[in-house]
C-alpha cells in the first residue's frame, strides 16, 4: 500500500505535458522527473507536515510542498494521505484558490 491516494479529479495534465516536453530530448530524464514527483508524494506519507500552509489560497488545513516548478496540494490529516492536485507553481493564485474551493 502506498499510504496515499490521488483525488479522483486531480489534474495531472501539466505533469505529463512536462514529461512529454522533456522526453523529446531525453526519455530517461523525463522518467526521472515523474519519479521525483512520486518520491516527494511518498515522503509526505512519512512526514505529513511538510510544505507550507497557504492561507491566501484556502482556509482548509492543506499543505503545499514544492518540487521543481510544481506544487503538491495535499490534506495531511487524511488517512490515507489525500493528494488533491499537483499543479504548476506559476499558475495564477486566484485560479488555484478557485480550483481548491471545488475540491472536497
Structure, explained:
This protein is α+β, with helices and mostly antiparallel strands. The protein has a single domain, classed as RelE-like (YaeB-like fold), CATH 3.30.2310.20. The chain is 38% helix and 18% strand. The protein contains three helices and four strands. The chain has helices at residues 13-23, 27-46, 93-101, and strands at 4-6, 66-67, 70-75, 81-88. Strands 1-4-3-2 form a four-stranded mixed β-sheet, with helices on one face. Helix 1 runs antiparallel to helix 2. The chain is globular, with a radius of gyration of 14 Å. The two termini are 23 Å apart. The relative contact order is 0.20. The mean pLDDT is 89.
Q: What summary fits the major beta sheet?
A: 4 strands, mixed
The count of helical stretches stands at: 3
Kindly, what is the distance between the CA atoms of the first and last residues, rounded to a whole number of angstroms?
23 Å
Shape: globular
Measured by DSSP, the beta-strand proportion falls in: 15-25%
Find the count of extended strands (DSSP E, 2+ residues).
4
Rg value = 14 Å
Give helix and strand order, one letter per element, not per position: EHHEEEH
Low-confidence stretches: none
Q: Roughly what is the average pLDDT, rounded to an integer?
A: 89
User: Superfamily at the CATH H level?
Assistant: RelE-like
Domain module tally: 1
Structural class by sheet pairing and helices: alpha+beta
Provide the helix percentage: 25-40%
Amino acid at each position: 500500500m502506498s499510504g496515499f491516494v490521488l483525488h479522483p479529479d486531480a489534474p495531472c495534465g501539466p505533469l505529463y505535458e512536462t514529461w512529454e516536453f522533456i522526453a523529446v530530448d531525453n526519455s530517461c530524464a523525463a522518467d526521472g522527473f515523474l519519479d521525483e514527483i512520486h518520491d516527494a508524494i511518498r515522503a509526505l506519507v512519512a512526514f505529513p507536515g511538510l510544505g507550507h500552509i497557504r492561507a491566501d489560497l484556502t482556509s482548509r488545513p492543506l499543505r503545499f510542498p514544492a518540487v521543481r516548478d510544481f506544487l503538491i496540494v495535499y490534506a495531511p490529516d487524511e488517512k490515507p494521505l489525500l493528494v488533491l492536485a499537483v499543479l504548476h507553481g506559476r499558475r495564477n493564485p486566484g485560479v488555484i484558490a478557485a480550483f481548491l474551493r471545488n475540491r472536497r
